[in-house]
Design brief:
Layout lengths: L1 E14 L3 E8 L3 E7 L16 E7 L8 E8 L8 H17 L7 H16 L7 H14 L12 H19 L8 H12 L4
Antiparallel strand pairs: 1-2, 1-4, 2-3, 4-5
Amino acid sequence: MHLTAPAILVAARPHGETAVIARMLTEESGLVAAYVAGGRGRQLRPVVIPGNLVQADIRAKSDSQLPFARLELVTSRGPWLSEPLPAAAIAWVTALTASVLPERNAYPALYDALGGLLDAICSAQAARQWVEALAVYEALMLRELGYGGERPAIANLGQALEILDRQEPLIARYLLADTRTDVLAARQLLRQRLARMVE
């Protein structure tokens, strides 16, 4: 395997003393996990943040071997991690993506939608401007994996929040039923913070 492509980093798990296992979503190869040497070091720590867009050079000698990756930062989401709502949204969408997509299956629509959603979260003046995109991304995830229907029509913030609430049991039942970690905790934290906007 040899892949050089832009990738959205969706998870980074410590491995050994200084490395990480990074999971990245690419347009043509889907979700790919790779070993990043020095990923917890001073130089790479700001690069291996979930939500970041990176240029990935991924290589493996065989399909059964965990690939090695060299990463270069393209777009950082780090500055928004100190803001409660954007940080919760980035944590949720990256955790969802990393947890439910099968490895090495291409989902170009999800890659484009996730990139657009992360850009919206980080460039919008307020969460009201990206909540609709979040609801659409969840619906697209359900549809791409065979559990959903049409793209929801959303007229306002209240309707977007209602759709998010309707989608949670579907996500829990169909997408996250087999995961061992509590990924929904990230969504529940985000939903609590979004609820404060309409109080």
